[in-house]
From TrEMBL:
It is an enzyme of class 2 (transferase). The gene is LOC113716471. Belongs to the sulfotransferase 1 family. Gene3D superfamilies: P-loop containing nucleotide triphosphate hydrolases. Residues 71-332 form the Sulfotransferase domain. This is Sulfotransferase. Residues 1-17 have a biased composition (Polar residues). PANTHER family: SULFOTRANSFERASE SULT. Residues 1-21 are annotated as: Disordered. It comes from Coffea arabica (Arabian coffee).
Amino acid sequence: MAITELNKSQSRNEAQGEQQQLSEECQELLNTLPKERGWRTQHLYLFQGFWCQPKEIQAIMSVQRNFIAQDSDVVLATIPKSGTTWLKAIAFTIMNRKNIPVQNDNHPLLTSNPHELVPFLEYKLYADNCIPDFSTIPCPRLLATHMPFSALPQSVKESGCRVVYLARNPFDTFVSIWHFMEKLRPESFGCLSFEEAFDMYCSGVVGFGPYWDHLLGYWNESLQRTQKVLFLKYEEMKEDTNSQLKKLAEFLGLPFSIEEEKGGVVDEISRLCSFQTLKDMEVNKNGKGAIFADSENKDLFRKGVVGDWINHMTPSMVDRLRNIMDKKLSGSNLSFQLL
Ligand code: A3P
């Protein structure tokens, strides 16, 4: 058999294997959903208005049916590659700073990847047909999701649970997704060029996308329920991390005291959670499986800058994405710093 044929049949087998792990209900549902070529799986499906992989759909259905939010919960929400790892590190450190001082030699971030400390609802807790045992997770529970606001369980929207959304400009987010997918895509799925991926992204076909809908869902909610939904931007966190840390701590009901500020606690958290500090940790240099069993933790830390898109996109790509953003975000008052 020629290599391409072999690859095609291998990827068909992988796709079939993927489907076999799904419940009958989910398999039946997939047959009714629009689908497009995926970035690292055979297909992405349009489920409840956003694109996702079969296993994610099954887990999300389970989250929607089974997860009951508590008033003290904090849910971190992002689209993939917009700074989730960073937000998890920061929120975990702020929320636990009384019990685990930042300078503690045993601080969990020194030996664990942030994804191990703040579990995803759909990738971890409710993945693979599991129903989590929450009695082992202390309150207040710190959880994460990539789901759009519209897909969150009703109890998250109606309880006192707080939601923190981190947004990143769609140019850098695309470049980051593309690089990450290059690392994750099985060889048998063939190549996905930067141009092809960009087309898919612009059409909204990207995990949990269209990204503009994801952004607007949380943005609008943050304007209406300011006490319950906080909207942060990656670029502002890069520009002035300390002031964003203070904003987050206040939103969480855990403001920094004057003594903490004078004692340099905010600076210490910024430093501990910075790109370079986390990237240099042994667990993040050589560890594996923080998100997916087959992924290396080092791939979560690429460049960590604002404006890397300029090194990748042609002027016509820039125009196209700029036009889409202008159109989709028009009237929302939501804008991004691009460089
Ligand atoms: P780049 O690929 O542009 O470098 P996510 O955590 O949602 O997967 O997002 C990954 C992106 O966040 C990557 O962007 C990664 O380098 C960057 N990142 C990871 N940790 C960071 C940190 N502590 N500070 C700033 N950026 C970080």
